[in-house]
Amino acid sequence: MTSDADTVIQTTGLTKRFGGVDAVNGIDFQVRHGDVYGFLGPNGSGKTTTIRLLLGLISPTRGGCSIFGEPVLPGAAALRCVGALVERPAFYPYLSAVDNLLLYAAARGIDRDRATRLVGPALERVGLTEAARRKLAGYSTGMRQRLGIGTALLDGPELIVLDEPTNGLDPGGVVEVRQLIASLAREGATIFLSSHVLTEVEQLCDRVAILVRGRIVSEGSTRDMLGEGERLFLRFETGDEAGRAATLLNQRDIAFERLDDAPALLVSAPASEGARVNRLLGEAGLYPGELSVRRPSLESVFLELTGDRAVEPTASAPDAPAAPATVT
Amino acid sequence: MSGFLRADWIRFRHRRDVLVIALALPVLAVVGYASGLTSSGNQFSFDPDFSPPPEILAAMAAERQRFAFPQSVLTLLGSTGIGLLALVYLAVATVGDEIGWSTIRLSLLASSDRRRFLASRFVALGVVTAWIVGSLFVLGVVLPFAAKALGADLPTAPAIDALGTVGYVASILLVAASALSFGILVALLTRSGPAALVVAVIYTLVEAAFGSLPIWQRDDLLAWLPTLLFTTASAALLDQANRAAAAVRPFEELIGSPPPEQPLPHVLSIQAGMLVVLAWGALFLTAAFLRMRRMDIPE
Predict the structure, then answer these.
(1) Is the residue at A2 inside a domain?
(2) What is the predicted ipTM?
């Protein structure tokens, strides 16, 4: 794996062993400038351990990682360019939100005047203006989570690391935080988002790694990952037409699946092949009443990779209702 | 490090235990002074016709002189014993709570420089120490005059040894710094404030038991070994330095009788005591920095 000026995070054989267990086992990945990188995995797969390694909170057993080209060690200057929310955010219970943020800013080396200017907007951004002077001991889990996000974003860091940012939030809060992440991405921030909420990663991330038992089992662009499972859905007027289409596809060695409950076929081909398949059928005088793309959700990809039963797309119950794309 | 110090200022000025200790110790010292002064002339109750023996009269005079300026300064500074315990508590609590509450993560996410984090905490606790010692010193100067103004009958006290007083203050600060290092190290090792307090108490008891083992009395050279232990050396240093600063004449000299023939006790000189305590403090602090540098923060 090569590193260049565009690389923000790079790991090489990153391994962390606790006792006799490899929590993270030789993982390699690269996050480039401007990426919204999803780090997906079931609970206990090693996501938070990886994040702690990236932030220098724990040391790797083997391998290493770098941020902005600088090896991650305690005191590394590059870590100053990172804002992070790690697992459950921890704050001083006897301090108010304002004092917690001022304390964080002071430890970050931000001068008092600038810190004072930053705190108000940061709290407003996460909807905590009214509770700004209340002590943290009285905050709910969701409020702490919001403050954790506000802390991570306080001084507009170049790299934002968010570990399960929507944990503990009510549905409205989840939507707000996702909108916030999306707006940060539009502003050009590099975001490393760890989550086990598949729709969150699918909606927000342009690249994704799937971690299972400390190993990355799949890594790439979200589009490619979902594209690998794309299928074309062809519905005909009659079963006879569907049968002729099946014969034709067989002759051309194009894989497909015939559906039992409808005169329809699911062709194993990506959306880009839609026009070619349609032309082929047209040349044989077959004109499907519907040709659409059925995309697997990240959930089905994830379940397949993690060894659980994949949710197969079907004509009657497509698992990607948000993404049907008609190409005819 | 100024950023971390500013952060510690925010932490400390809102922590109730820090405020209570910083304010309560001087108040306790005032109460102790007033109580000691009031009782110093009343501990012997005599028949009006009875003439007390000279050693009793000398002891009463010497006791009352402790509350008159300038001996009062040393008397007040001598009450730092409980202050040292409070400092160990503060070191243990302020570092242990960081780990127990996981707030150490907040600090290290703000800046990952662990050495500065620890150095700043040490300095911040040092400032609290300086405040306590400084306030006791000032009270030692002010209280005798306040007592006189309120009508107390204070004798003229013998002068104190200026160099000895400097040495005494230095000894207090040295012992305090070593005690802080000890508290910080124990908190880092146990990763918990309450657990660290228990370990600190157990350590002190074990050291006392270890130092009183009969094996040390078998040989004159071996008998010096317990004096090198941390709490033993610290207590002996403070006692020796206090005596040197007070320039107190031996009691036997006060009552005019020759000192009895006794074997020399095994007590380190002030200079040797300072070296021993300094060595312990350096050892504790180095171990704390090494521990901090290498420890994982999974909290």
Answers:
(1) no
(2) 0.82
pLDDT higher than 50, residue B218: yes
Q: Cα dihedral angle (A298, A300, A303, A307), rounded to 10 degrees?
A: -130
Same domain assignment for residues A236 and A198: no
Do residue A52 and residue A181 come from a single domain? yes
Q: Which of A221, A241, A257 is the last residue of a domain?
A: A221
Chain A: residue whose CA lies nearest to B115: A75
Q: Which residues of A274-312 are buried (b: 16+ CB within 10 A; e: fewer)?
A: beebbebbeeeebebeebbbbbbbbbbbbbbbbeeebbb
Q: What percent of chain A has pLDDT over 90?
A: 51
Tell me which chain B residue has its CA closest to the CA of residue A91. B103
Round the average pLDDT of chain B to a whole number and report it. 86
Report if residue A158 sits inside a domain: yes
The CATH number of whichever domain residue A271 belongs to comes to 3.30.70.790
How far is C-alpha B96 from the chain's CA centre? 21
Whether A31 maps to a domain, the answer reads yes
Q: Distance between CA atoms of B192 and B96, rounded to whole angstroms?
A: 4
Measure B121 CA to nearest chain A CA, in Å: 12
Residues A193, A47: Cα–Cα separation, whole Å: 10
Beta bridge partners of residue A48, listed in sequence order: none
Indicate yes or no: CB of B114 within 8 angstroms of CB of A92. Answer: no
pLDDT of residue A318: 32
Contact B6 A106 (CB under 8 A): yes
CA distance A85 to A51: 10
Q: Which ranges in A63-133 belong to alpha helices (H)?
A: 97-107, 112-125
Same domain, A145 and A272: no
Return the number of other C-beta atoms located less than 10 Å from residue B225's C-beta. 16
Q: Are residues A102 and A201 in the same domain?
A: yes
- The enclosing domain of A13 has a CATH number of 3.40.50.300
- The tally of domains found in chain A comes to 2
Contact A27, B75 (CB under 8 A): no
Tell me whether residues B10 and A102 touch, CB distance under 8 A: yes
B277 neighbors A40 (Cβ within 8 angstroms): no
Q: Which residue has the tokens 């506000």?
A: A150
Query: How far is the C-alpha of A138 from the C-alpha of A91, rounded, in Å?
Result: 12
Q: How far is CA A39 from CA A207, A211, A221, in A?
A: 9, 7, 12
Q: Is residue A1 part of a domain?
A: no
Give yes or no: residues A85 and A150 share one domain: yes
pLDDT at res. B221: 76
The C-alpha angle with vertex A102 and arms to A36 and B6, in degrees rounded to 5, equals 125
Q: Which of B10, B109, B296 sits opposite A58 (nearest CB)?
A: B296
Is there a single domain that holds both residue A212 and residue A274?
no
pLDDT tens digits, residue range B51-76? 777 777 777 777 788 888 898 999 99
Does residue A25 carry a pLDDT above 80? yes
Identify whether A318 is preceded by a cis peptide bond (ω within 30 of 0).
Answer: no
Where do the structural domains in chain B lie, given as residue ranges?
Answer: 2-44+51-294
**Last residue of a domain, which of A166, A189, A221?**
A221
CA A48 to chain B, closest CA, distance in angstroms equals: 9
pLDDT at residue A311, as a whole number: 38
* Domain identity same for A309 and A168: no
Q: Domain range for residue A314?
A: 228-326
